[in-house]
Amino acid sequence: MVIIIADTTSTIPTDEAKRLGIPYIPQIIVIGDETYRDDYEIDSKTFLQRLKTSPVLPKTAAPPPALYYPIYQEYAKPGNTLIVLAPSADVSGTYRSAEVAAKDFPGADIRIIDTRTIGAGLGTLVRLAHQWAQAGVDADTIIRRVKEWATRERVYFVVDTLEYLHKGGRIGGAQMLVGSLLQIKPILQFKNGRTEPVESQRTKRRAVERLKELVYSDCPHSDQSFLSIMHGDAFEEAQRLAEEFKTALGLSHVPICDLPPAILVHAGPGVLGVSYFTAP
């Protein structure tokens, strides 16, 4: 049997992961001297309230290896293969924690995959891998498919403010100053395992319009694009965007995902993102 293991950076709601039978790991949120698991101790809405009012910038920590131990103990039986689909190792220590924990199970077939992505696209890969495992697809084939699908993912974000990117060390002080003076709204992409700038617009409306153009340029007019909208405290905007994509691309459903605290700490409130997969 193949068991897919995931974590909260995949944006899969905790209750959905439980219903599907996907072993699920939290990220750790640090606010001053307080720490929280983001699967049931703090949610995105509560975190954003704390983010806006906290005198210190909240931080995230990768799940410690100890959180993987009970899952490995339960599922690492003879004949089982465990596949951990981890967020990009360039932005999260989750991959490393899963790897460290696996060293205490030398006889088990545990495979940790750096998916090179994060967010809703990672969630899509987890759901697909779980479906394939349930259908009896072997571990090697699942891993090969996940890696191939990952190369076709596109992720674009529009952030409402440069403040949190600056505080988190993602942009320098000069960029922050100029961006704030000009009220620049950057369009970012998640590419090659990390966040990269695409371009900037003078207003969020223009940035969102440009984001739509980027999506329309290569997103298939098919549900196989698995297009998803991600947001942080921008549900109405996300809803409008989802409806536009649904109509323009002929999609039967466009899910809207709440970004988890581990991503919101850098993107901040008001962030709006799109994930989809191009044609093979």
Automatic annotation (TrEMBL):
Matching InterPro entries: DegV, DegV_C, DegV_domain_contain
Protein name: DegV family protein
NCBIfam families linked to this entry: DegV
Gene3D superfamilies: 3.30.1180.10, 3.40.50.10170
Domain of life: Bacteria
Entry keyword set: Lipid-binding
Source species of the chain: Thermanaerothrix daxensis
Entry GO MF terms: lipid binding
